[in-house]
Every structure is written in structure tokens, then in C-alpha cells.
Specification:
Blueprint: E1 2-6, E2 9-13, H1 21-35, H2 70-89, H3 94-97, E3 100-108, E4 132-139, E5 144-149, E6 152-157, E7 162-166, E8 170-173, E9 182-190, E10 206-207
Antiparallel strand pairs: 1-2, 2-7, 3-9, 3-10, 4-7, 4-9, 5-6, 5-8
């Protein structure tokens, strides 16, 4: 079931039977092996050395949705469904937009404790017309993110297994003080007419 925090922020709680964070970590490891064919100095990621890798370093060098993997296929179907719900509520013609998606893995290591919320370096991808950004929260409990809309800042708790997408919001990471990595799948969704120039990216967006 899809839920909204406001008309521009939607989420869905996903349950993959038999899937846990360890399975996702193994997928991240396999992903690293595939990406390493194109990127030097990217090594295999085991549970033991996961803390040595941060997927954000290579975020524009690959697309997680281009890998043939049952988990990612299922996730992509949930993203499509949630995006269609949001588009229906916002009177956006989903078919006419011809949406494309780019996704990557973010692994946050160590303590992140940003407290000056009045001076955050906001991410603003979702401020472009009909553009959405979102994330699938794998191992992110005991944390939150900040969201900015119309001058109002909201702090929203991160729930494991939650998929969210939003538009017309800026956002930034909240506190992370755990001694384990925080693992998030992030993605941007653009209409075909608004795709960034291809030369800005090594990888292509793929049709959603």
C-alpha cells in the first residue's frame, strides 16, 4: 500500500520474502565485481571489508538497474508502481513523460552528525519540473533525513525496507552514529525531455 507524507512525498514499505541485509550486501559485492571491469582500484566487497567501500564515490559510473538480478527487478517494479501513484495524484501523465532512471548504492561509514540544519548543503535534484528522486532504505534504522519544502524543514525517520520517492523537495542526510555501515539504494527519475546531457554521465539512464 502506498502512503504520502504530503502530496509530493510518497513511500511504500516493501517486504521481500527470504531477503535480508546480508543478501543485499552480497549483491553489492557482486555489483562491485561487475563495475570493477570499468573502474580501477575497486575491490571485492565482503561483509568484513564493507566499511572500506563507499558506493557514492562511483555513483555516476554505473546503474544498479542495468544488472540482471531478481532483487533489483522486483525493486524496479515497486518503484514503477509508486511513481505511477505519485503521478496520478499530481496529475502528471506517466506515459507521456517517458521516465528514465539511474540508481546507485550509497554506503555511509563512520559517524555522520550534522546538527546545523540551517546551513545544510541541500541536494536539489527533485526541484526540476516532474523530476523525482528517491531511495530504498536497506540498513538505515536509527537514522533520519531532512527534507526542505517551501522553507519548512521536516525530519523524517528512516525505516528499513522502506521505498520513498519525492519531488519539489530538497533533502540532506540526518544523523548516523552507528558503528556499522548505513546502506541505501538511491536513484533519480527524469522525464525523457529533461535527461541530463549524456556527456555528463559515463552510464546511461534506462527507461523505467
Amino acid at each position: 500500500m502506498d502512503h504520502s507524507i504530503d502530496n509530493d512525498f510518497w513511500y511504500r514499505d516493501i517486504s521481500f520474502t527470504g531477503i535480508n541485509v546480508g543478501d543485499y550486501r552480497r549483491f553489492v559485492s557482486a555489483l562491485a565485481i561487475g563495475v570493477s571491469n570499468h573502474i580501477t582500484n575497486l575491490v571485492y566487497i565482503s561483509d568484513e571489508n564493507l566499511k572500506e567501500f563507499s558506493g557514492i564515490d562511483y555513483w555516476d559510473r554505473y546503474n544498479i538497474f542495468s544488472y540482471q538480478n531478481e532483487i533489483m527487478y522486483d525493486l524496479l517494479q515497486h518503484i514503477k508502481g509508486l511513481l505511477q501513484t505519485a503521478c496520478n495524484k499530481l496529475d502528471i501523465n506517466y506515459i507521456e513523460q517517458k521516465y528514465h532512471i539511474h540508481g546507485w548504492v550509497d554506503i555511509y561509514n563512520g559517524e555522520f552528525n550534522e546538527t546545523d540544519i540551517d546551513n545544510l548543503s541541500w541536494y536539489d535534484e527533485a526541484m526540476t519540473n516532474n523530476v523525482f528522486t528517491g531511495m530504498f532504505l536497506l540498513d538505515a534504522e536509527d537514522s533520519s533525513n531532512y527534507y526542505l519544502k517551501n522553507g519548512e524543514i521536516k525530519e523524517i525517520e528512516n525505516m528499513p525496507g522502506r521505498l520513498n520517492i519525492f519531488t519539489n523537495h530538497k533533502w540532506f542526510h540526518g544523523k548516523w552514529t552507528q558503528d556499522r555501515p548505513k546502506i541505501v539504494f538511491r536513484f533519480n527519475i527524469y522525464p525523457l525531455s529533461s535527461l541530463p546531457p549524456l556527456e555528463d554521465y559515463v552510464t546511461r539512464y534506462i527507461p523505467l
